[in-house]
């Protein structure tokens, strides 16, 4: 299945934290025979409203997006790993398509230019 993961990391001013989180998630996907289709760093933006997570209040967050093919179990493992990481503010995964080759071919390439 093709999934898109959008994550928000606490904005520490250190891009290394974001890279570590993405690297860990990517390694987990690859270890379980998944394929990473695209990765994008969106940068730091204000959150729509202040969020309290892990006993901290956040006004801004560092956004990233990742598209990957993986099994349902792999996707759940990635979600659980991100949920337990204290550097993460929020994350969401969305399944793209219904997994059938006919509908997946209509998606075309991943356009990260927007």
From TrEMBL:
<dbReference type="GO" id="GO:0003735">
    <property type="term" value="F:structural constituent of ribosome"/>
</dbReference>
<dbReference type="InterPro" id="IPR000529">
    <property type="entry name" value="Ribosomal_bS6"/>
</dbReference>
<keyword id="KW-0496">Mitochondrion</keyword>
<dbReference type="GO" id="GO:0006412">
    <property type="term" value="P:translation"/>
</dbReference>
<comment type="function">
    <text>Component of the mitochondrial ribosome (mitoribosome), a dedicated translation machinery responsible for the synthesis of mitochondrial genome-encoded proteins, including at least some of the essential transmembrane subunits of the mitochondrial respiratory chain. The mitoribosomes are attached to the mitochondrial inner membrane and translation products are cotranslationally integrated into the membrane.</text>
</comment>
<keyword id="KW-0687">Ribonucleoprotein</keyword>
<keyword id="KW-0689">Ribosomal protein</keyword>
<dbReference type="InterPro" id="IPR014717">
    <property type="entry name" value="Transl_elong_EF1B/ribsomal_bS6"/>
</dbReference>
<dbReference type="GO" id="GO:0070181">
    <property type="term" value="F:small ribosomal subunit rRNA binding"/>
</dbReference>
<comment type="similarity">
    <text>Belongs to the bacterial ribosomal protein bS6 family.</text>
</comment>
<dbReference type="Pfam" id="PF01250">
    <property type="entry name" value="Ribosomal_S6"/>
</dbReference>
<dbReference type="GO" id="GO:0005763">
    <property type="term" value="C:mitochondrial small ribosomal subunit"/>
</dbReference>
<dbReference type="InterPro" id="IPR035980">
    <property type="entry name" value="Ribosomal_bS6_sf"/>
</dbReference>
<protein>
    <recommendedName>
        <fullName>Small ribosomal subunit protein bS6m</fullName>
    </recommendedName>
</protein>
């Amino acid at each position: 299945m093709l999934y898109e993961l959008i994550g928000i990391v606490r904005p520490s001013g250190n891009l290394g934290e974001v890279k570590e989180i993405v690297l860990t998630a990517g390694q987990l996907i690859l270890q379980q025979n998944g394929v990473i289709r695209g990765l994008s760093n969106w940068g730091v933006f204000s959150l729509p409203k202040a969020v309290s997570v892990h006993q901290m209040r956040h006004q801004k967050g560092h956004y990233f997006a990742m598209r990957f093919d993986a099994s349902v179990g792999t996707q759940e493992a990635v979600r659980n790993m991100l949920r337990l990481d204290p550097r993460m503010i929020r994350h969401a995964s969305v399944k793209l398509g219904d997994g059938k080759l006919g509908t997946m071919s209509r998606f075309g390439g991943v356009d990260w230019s927007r």
